[in-house]
Amino acid sequence: MKLINKTKYAILGVLLAGPSTGYEIKSLMNRSTVYFWRESDSTLYPMLKVLAKEGKVSSEIVYSGKKKKEIFSITEAGRAEFSTWLESPTGLEIPRNEFLLKLFFLTEPVDMVRLFQERLQHMEKIYTDYQKIATRLESLAVSPSQTVRLKTLRYGITHLNLEINWLKENIAENING
Hints:
This protein is mostly helical. It is 66% helix and 10% strand. The protein has seven helices and three strands. It is elongated.
C-alpha cells in the first residue's frame, strides 16, 4: 500500500480557515495540532510548493514595506481533495514512542522507576497545558470549530489521565515491589 504524505491535509485544513503565510500556518500548528500532529519546516514549506504545483493552493506575493510575504489560499481542487480525504477511512497509525522503546529494553526496576518518574513529570506538565487550553476554549463562543476542538482536546486529556494513572501505579509497584 502506498504511503500518502498527510502533511498536505494538515496544511489544507489550516487554509480552510483563510489565507495564510507559511509562517502563519506553522505558528497555528505550533499552538494547536502540535500536540498530536507535528510538522517541521523541512516538510511544511516544500509541501506548500507541491500543493501550489498541483493546483491545490494558490499563492500571492504581497509587500509590507520592503518585506515580501507569500500568502497561500486553498483552491477548489484543494477543498475537494481535503473533503475526499476526510471521507476516506482513517488508516492505522503506528506511533513512534521513545518512552515505550526504552521501557521495552529495560530490565532493572530502578531504571524503570526513573523512566516512569521522568515520564510522569512530562505528562503532568502536558496535562496542565491541556487544562489551560480547555479553559480558554470553553470561554469562547460556542461554534462548530470550538466544539470539535474541545472534543479533540478532551480525547487528549482522557489519554493523559489514563497514562498518568498507569505511571503512578507502576512507580508504586516497582518501588514497593
